[in-house]
Design goal:
8-stranded mixed sheet; homodimer
Chain lengths: 902, 902
């Protein structure tokens, strides 16, 4: 649209041009608005106008624009000048259209007043129905409808809603009166109350209203209307609406529109009714009309759940004509909106009215099926279908879930740290997890928190449960990387490592007991639960094939093991964008050799220990190269500081001393020597390569020896050696020169050569600043946006938890920058790095390998910047593939739009 | 010049144009070179040419260019084509000039072959004298000089030098032969040896030479010359020369030039001699001819220290004519070079020759005096004088020093962490330091290492001595900030806190014993030593007044107390650029209130504790505002993470629990809760302001209340409130809005207003990226280059020690980026931040307040970027003032040069 900004500016400026229009009429087949005007008329208002335009029966009415709402706030909660006049004019128009008059005791017009913002916020804002009723008008209504009970009940409902919504009278005040009356007359249900009972309730309501508000219930319908409009304006900023927008990241809207519409009544007897339906099944996506309705009821009754609604099939029998009409409307709306619709209707004395239509919310499964079906039905082309499915939602389809038929006993709730479902018996440390898993026993690893030493156990487990740590804790990050289900920060758990049990509520779970985790919901259940594996074929596969055709950005995976690599390939990864070698250092006996290397006093000692590691590392790479035959594999050389490989508690240090036959003091001394104040900013990454070059020497040798061997087996091997934490040109050249010498030696020894690249992580701000120089020598860049985000913001992911919540709440950041790339800041770095790099090396291969590589909006950014690929955890590969396709589709559309303009 | 780069490129390209000239002649009043050609001819060669041109008697010769040296390396240690030819031609020219012939047995030409790079590297490279002597030629020399002993001794020296320098024969080999001979003939000194003795020594030398080199001593003078030239070329890259360049940060040179010059002999009897002198006193700068000489000696004898040289006064008596000539030359050289010269001369049989002139090295005191005197003498203008004094050197003049007459007993050596001299009795903790100091006792605080809790004690002490930590350890940084003498990382100290003593070597120093520290040398002495206070008047004051007139950049000081502020003003600070408020939190009882605030469970509890702090903080600010009457004071709000204010060892925690009447567990729990993985990247700076707004509220109130009160006393108060660690626009606006509200409240309460600014530290990379947005609301920027450097490089100052040494040694960084601003990286940020900020707010006040503000080259960068001010520790203010003036002078000069070009 682009007009939102202008509108906002106009609204903010406080200056109104004389011709400013605030109110838009719809009715009798004509409307001033249309579906494209959501920003101004809200979703509801725009669609009411649109439906009117295309000849769908909609009760006439008018919409007061979101801009009026913005000016209302701008003016200190007063209407902008001109609004009152406009409302009056349009009310008269509405009276004409209906042939009724507002406040007329013979032929009264009643209206509904509903909120409706550009983005749907169901239930968050206010609605008043039956507005226009007074003591006098209700008499007219009785005469006109010949239904005394209906009229009094309408009045009762109006006082209740108006009192509560507009004037803040407590719900209980009204409910209490009704309950008392029901007891008094021995009525079991509301419907058992007679006209006179309700009349008495109305009397009591008015008394209560006056007591609580200090004023009489207004008997002027125009005053009622004005107050109701104000209430809707104000409901835009009620706490729950603010909270809802916060939670759903809805920002940048002007306010809510107000829809004033002639009332129709579904509670006028057996030929009336009201219903809600979806044009297709919102759970499965099946192309079947789906909904419920209630005879002789108003909309609120369906929601309130007092009576159980009937399925639509019943309507077909009860009101076949209405059902036929509704089916026609269903088809018309789907053809018109080219999407599954969520509609509300009311039947008043055998006449059908549509009160709302909007694109229906749906599950991921339904989204995929509907998109694919709409292409089959030629309502959409493939490109449009791809844009219809929210990439993030795919996550639901990519992990195991619990069989919905299983009965679940929830015992605790934590953070949904890594999606999926897992069942296993409880173990309390990594060694036990590995031992049990080797026996073929599924296990859940339960820890207060995890550390890098637990990697082996995490890998062996079906799922991970921690008592401490947030969405970006070690457990959460590693689990997501592994595509492993994880519930983190489950604060109620009291874990006793010694007793090997944990308590939560009244439950004591011992080692060996079965529990189940739902990582998508953050829930912990007692006992075994059956899981269902994700289905990646059918409609999903079709949609993904369209996406793959369309996208320009390649999608790789972060994978550290042959197994990860295999999963990644299954999910459609086109290579490995980040293979972390440090995880390999923890496995089995390797850690002993690693520790020997760390304790060594000199180069020789280090070299000796590294020699032991060489064949193991080589084996790892062979497995990965084999799994990725024909696809590139980016291997990052050792990154974490060395102290991460030493134990930090005394028992483990003692154990290590025994195993390694050195004194405890020596180990303690080394731990102290390696201590860092800020490990994130310490002796790690390529700094290790500069000070202890033997380590990288060994790794490069292992990579290239593995590559040569696997090539001999006939596979195509494309290793890309990645140096982490580069910040200066010469850091890179020193390391690269050394690597190239080793490569030549290896090729000579092996009697064969492989093509390989040497590139760098871009994760240090300084590297961006000198990206042009680095690109002279580096053959690829991979933006490590985890670290880059940390350095750019100057806070670490591990520590930011203490204030990030406040920052999001106060709107300092719109999104958690570790979840979704900060385009304003980090994004500038990425643009500069890319431009500077390509200014020197035109075909520089550029990718991203932070967790952002699996976040749809970040993926779209990567596309726009012109990267070659994104890399993400294997389970996010399909999400990235879809997001990449959407980015390409949006770009194409934009180009087309631009062409259209000129 | 600019031509160096071109020259290097040409040299590197390996392509030589046909006309490339490698050899430059000088002699008989004409020279092909001049003083401006140092890059090509080296300092020595250029000055020999220059002296020749201006008519000073110089033995003729020729210079082989540094470019030839570069090509020598480029060609795998072979001469570039054409060089041999050129040398031959110039040798012939030299023979003509002298009337002697190379290798001629009747009239032999002897030459010296000396190195000489563009930058003086005394003693680092090689020299060969008396070249051209052979068994045959020596006979001719005997005939010609009628001095057999002289001739044999010349030959003996030549073989010795050539053998050692060119062929690598060990010194001892030759020395051993001489010693044997001396014993044999009972000669006490070399001069007691007779011609025949020396003749025998020559014979033995030749045998030894052949034994060690496997070849005969060359009897072809041309071969001798070629080998000597190669030796000089090669000496450019001998380990000690490389090390010297490293240490002195000499980079970017092509190589060494080679000077081949006709020999003159100072050892031809009583009418001969050799000497070295300075045209003014290099220690004091006094305008008095200053030097020493030896009769009947060669240059090496003066250096070798075998005989004690005579002062110049003696020359005046012994050779009055020569002395008169020398005085004339002194004057001529000073007038010509317009600087104090360091010259070498030789008298051969009553004839004076100059062998070298160069600008003399001098102490800071001398540099200032000479510069001022040269202006008085109208040899320099003020601008030139300012450029003559190295800003860094001023440091020597700004701190107390030990009386040179005192006898010192050194007991340990550590790092020269903060300059100055201090004497006091030893204390081992901060509390004792404060207690003793209160009694008027000067103390030296001795700690294994210091932490923020020791601030009070550090401040109370005369000097600080630590056993651990480097140049950027807490002790070092804080001490430099305070201008307090500090010796850090004195690893030999064994400190026993319990026994209150430390041992080092055989000394045991107990609490109360006196020691003295030299923070400029890193030395620890036993006992009391008298110190001399720096003298800031006289020439120093004059030079500084010229500097102040010239500079555009203002100089402020980092000062946290009224006392610091007073010192800063004395040193010429034009305001305070950084007043850190956290140090105030440690003093006396305040820490209790601070800890109460930290332990508080809610806003009310915090507010209560902060109320106690308010009057104390206000008092601090009052003192500072008073001291800085009329000058701006930038106050940074609380920056460090809160856990820095809690004790981390159990005894202190227990103590705190008792004082505060809470349980030890509560304190431990809070410490654990506040623990951070990377405190540098944690919950600090304005993040505290966002999450605990009460803290900044209190501080802002304290600042503005103090300002109003002091204003009432008639002082001019200019507070500038600085928010640390800003990374996002909204962070700033939220805090600023809050502050402005408090300001209005305070002004109302006080019944008066003061002007104040609210600005931000620029220390987070993201802040630079959004500097334009921040400048919409921030009234000043102050680049916090300590943190900015850490974030840009991605390493912390505390942890970088583990690899920074390797990085400097391997040339990855030219300088320690924490000492001298990294212009390539961090400098880009500063440029962008400045440009972006001023693009929005044209008059945005911009400064720097990292430690770089006191580093001359960084100050010059700040000038070029267009900052308004730099801020540094009080003791560095004069350095910054001078550096700022130099920057302005250089800029003016550049502009003038550019004008000249057009």
């Amino acid at each position: 649209m682009g007009s939102l900004a202008t509108m906002k500016k106009k609204a903010k400026s406080g200056k109104q041009s004389k011709k400013q229009k605030f109110v838009y009429f719809f009715g009798k087949g004509h409307a001033e608005g249309n579906a494209g005007m959501k920003d101004l008329l809200g979703g509801k208002g725009a669609n009411l106008a649109e439906m009117t335009r295309i000849g769908i029966p909609v009760p006439p009415g008018f919409t007061i624009s979101t801009q009026a709402c913005a000016l209302f706030y701008e003016n200190g909660e007063k209407w902008p000048s001109g609004l009152e006049e406009e409302i009056k004019t349009h009310l008269a128009k509405l009276e004409d259209a209906m042939g009724y008059r507002f406040g007329d005791r013979n032929n009264p017009l009643l209206v509904s007043v509903r909120s409706g913002a550009a983005v749907s916020m169901p239930g968050m804002m206010d609605t008043v129905l039956n507005l226009g009723l007074t003591a006098e008008v209700v008499q007219g209504l009785i005469v006109k409808t010949e239904n005394e009970r209906f009229a009094w009940d309408a009045y009762r409902r109006f006082i209740q809603m108006f009192g509560n919504v507009v004037m803040g009278v407590k719900h209980e005040t009204f409910e209490h009166i009704i309950e008392k009356k029901k007891k008094q007359v021995h009525a079991a249900q509301d419907t058992d109350l007679q006209a006179n009972d309700i009349k008495d309730i109305v009397r009591q309501f008015k008394v209560a209203y006056q007591e609580e508000t200090g004023e009489e219930f207004p008997q002027d319908p125009h005053l009622q209307l004005n107050k109701a409009i104000n209430a809707v304006f104000k409901s835009w900023n009620n706490p729950r609406a603010i909270k809802y927008r916060d939670l759903n990241e809805i920002r940048g809207l002007l306010g809510t529109a107000v829809n004033v519409q002639a009332m129709v009544f579904g509670n006028m007897g057996e030929t009336s009714g009201t219903g809600v339906c979806f044009t297709r099944n919102p759970s499965t996506g099946e192309n079947k009309f789906y909904g419920e309705y209630l005879v002789n009821a108003q909309g609120e009754d369906v929601v309130a759940g007092i009576r159980t609604p009937e399925p639509l099939d019943k309507l077909k029998i009860q009101m076949p004509e209405i059902y036929k009409q509704l089916c026609k409307i269903r088809e018309k709306l789907e053809r018109h909106y080219r999407d599954m619709q969520d509609i509300e209707f009311t039947v008043q004395e055998g006449k059908l009215f549509l009160l709302q239509t909007r694109n229906g919310k749906r599950t991921a499964q339904a989204a995929v099926r509907i998109a694919v079906d709409l292409v089959k039905e030629k309502l959409l082309n493939q490109e449009e279908a791809i844009l219809r499915v929210e990439a993030k939602q795919l996550d639901q389809l990519l992990h195991p879930t619990f069989d919905p038929k299983e009965k679940k006993e929830e015992i605790a709730k934590g953070l949904p740290a890594s999606p999926g479902a897992a069942t296993g018996c409880v173990v309390f440390n990594a060694d036990d997890a590995e031992a049990q898993a080797k026996k073929g026993e599924p296990v859940i690893l339960v820890r207060i928190e995890t550390s890098p030493e637990d990697i082996g156990g995490m890998f062996a487990a079906q799922g991970i449960l921690t008592a401490r740590g947030g969405m970006t804790s070690h457990a959460a990050v590693v689990a997501r990387g592994m595509g492993k289900c994880c519930v983190a920060g489950c604060g109620d758990l009291r874990i006793d490592y010694e007793a090997k049990e944990f308590r939560v509520g009244n439950n004591t779970i011992k080692e060996g007991d079965f529990i189940s985790l739902d990582g998508s919901l953050g829930k912990v259940y007692k006992g075994k639960l059956k899981t269902i594996e994700p289905e990646l074929s059918g409609d999903f596969a079709r949609l993904m094939s369209w996406a793959d055709k369309m996208r320009r950005l390649q999608v790789r995976a972060n994978a550290d093991t042959p197994n990860d690599a295999t999963v990644a390939r299954k999910f459609g990864a086109q290579g490995i964008g980040l293979c972390r070698t440090e995880h390999m250092f923890f496995e089995g006996d390797r850690i002993i050799a690693v520790r020997e290397m760390i304790l060594a006093q000199d180069v020789e000692g280090r070299a000796k220990a590294l020699e032991k590691l060489l064949p193991m590392q080589r084996g790892d790479f062979e497995g990965i190269f084999e799994a990725m035959d024909g696809l590139p594999v980016t291997i990052r050389l050792l990154d974490p500081p060395l102290h991460e490989f030493l134990p930090h508690d005394e028992p483990s240090q003692k154990e290590m001393a025994e195993v390694m036959k050195v004194s405890l003091e020596e180990i303690k001394h080394k731990v102290e020597e390696l201590h860092e104040f800020n490990p994130m900013l310490g002796h790690r990454g390529c700094r290790l390569g500069i000070t202890f070059p033997e380590i990288y020497d060994m790794q490069v040798r292992a990579i290239l020896e593995a590559a040569c061997r696997i090539k001999k087996h006939g596979a195509r091997v494309l290793p890309e050696i990645m140096i982490p934490l580069i910040g200066a040109y010469k850091e890179f050249t020193i390391l690269k020169d050394r690597m190239e010498k080793i490569a030549e030696k290896v090729f000579e020894e092996q009697g064969s050569r492989v093509d390989y690249l040497i590139g760098t992580m871009m994760e240090i701000p300084r590297a961006i600043l000198v990206a042009d120089r680095i690109a002279e020598v580096a053959q690829f860049f991979s933006f490590g946006t985890n670290d880059l985000t940390q350095m750019t913001f100057g806070f670490s992911r591990d520590d930011a938890g203490k204030f990030l919540g406040d920052y999001l709440q106060q709107g300092i950041f719109e999104k958690d920058p570790f979840q979704s790339l900060d385009e304003e800041g980090v994004g500038q770095f990425i643009r500069w790095g890319t431009e500077k790099g390509r200014s020197v090396r035109r075909d520089l291969k550029i990718g991203i390998c932070g967790e952002h590589g699996g976040d749809p909006s970040s993926v779209k950014f990567c596309h726009r910047v012109g990267m070659n690929y994104v890399s993400c955890s294997p389970y996010r590969v399909p999400i990235a593939r879809l997001a990449a396709a959407q980015a390409a589709a949006l770009e194409k559309r934009k180009k087309f739009d631009r062409k259209g303009e000129t």
